[in-house]
Write a structure and sequence with these properties.
Blueprint: H1 2-23, E1 49-50, E2 54-58, E3 62-68, E4 73-78, E5 81-85, E6 91-95, E7 114-116, E8 120-123, E9 130-133, E10 136-138, H2 146-159, E11 162-165, E12 179-184, E13 187-192, E14 210-211, E15 230-231, E16 233-234, E17 239-240, H3 251-256, E18 260-261, E19 274-287, E20 301-312, E21 315-325, E22 336-339, E23 352-356, E24 362-365, E25 370-373, E26 379-385
Parallel strand pairs: 10-13, 14-18
Antiparallel strand pairs: 1-2, 2-26, 3-4, 3-15, 4-5, 5-6, 7-8, 8-9, 11-12, 12-13, 16-17, 19-20, 20-21, 22-23, 23-26, 24-25
Amino acid sequence: MKKTTTMLLVVLVIFILLIIEKCSLNNLSTADFFRPKAYKNFKGLQDRVQSSDYEIVPVTGDFPILFDSIKNEFYIANKRGLTKIDANGNVMFSADLQNEKYTSVFDFANFSPYVFAEKGVYDFSGDQLEYCVFSKILNAENEINDLDFKSIFEKYYKEAELVIYDTGRNIDFKRDCVPMYFKVKNQWILLFSQKGDYRFTHQLTLDVDDIIGQIDFENFPAKFSDKRLMVLKDHKNGVYSTKQIGNKIDDKYLDTYYTQILKERKFNYQTSNEFKLLSYKKEAYYYKGNYWDLPEWINPSFICTGYFQLTYNNEKLFFKEKAIKYFLEPKSRYDLYLYELPVHLRKNTKVAFIDYDLDIGGYRNDSTEIIEPIIKNTGLYIIRPKPVR
């Protein structure tokens, strides 16, 4: 009888401890006592995480992340401009062109090192930013008849070394036209399409394949010469470093919308580099429901401090950032993505990008009236070789 009572007490104690572990902010199984002392030295991503040969540093910008495979240089969006980064991960130059009108970079429909504005072109492809005023702007008021337009367009298309088509997103909708850019003998010409011309692939007509990162015109594909840039990929999640608006462009997306083609999909992005959540510490409730909201009430979700290991090129980088431990789910959510080049290009640079994308909303700061995110430090980071001292 005494043995049975002891067993029941043991079971009861274990049950109570499980309830405390699952339902409260107490960290029993993940207490600091059980965690290696080295974890106390883990830095946040903003604090220049380092290993023997690599470092992680924040980079100001947004998607897309693009790569010039000839010059081994990277580009990332900088609001309405671009930031250019060299093969060692250092910023070469950056320009935010948010004051320009009719910029072409609202959705980065073309993977190119150019930003087209109302009166000229910003060229990011060299060692420094250059601006070139359009030598001609034609058909801005739809003044050209169809026959003359056909003749002018075909002449410029034949002569041009570069032909890039835009979207009409930044043009007055009443004009209903699309900018067309021609580089002829180092001069840029802007020709607006005829009003209501819907022969561009980005307009998603059912009979035409849409190449992501390149707008084409029926029977006259864009000419990029050696200026076409390419995207990186997070191999584990199958996500490409295109513009991240709404749905991320991943392999599942491309399988679903099979008329949309991403040329980089044919490349091998396999990698052994990966993130690993080593441990976590509950810090606050994320959602705990109410008395009648089962099972969340007895097994709530928590905002945690996650302790991470990134294995990159056989080195280990350790850091800490927030994660979410959802009720009844065995794995925590931390939304860390690692964007790398295809295997055949990795010999040219040891740079990769991290996107920390854990977004669970924010709150208004009454003193500044700014919406501040609950999860800090989200955004883009670059992994690069440590500078030689």
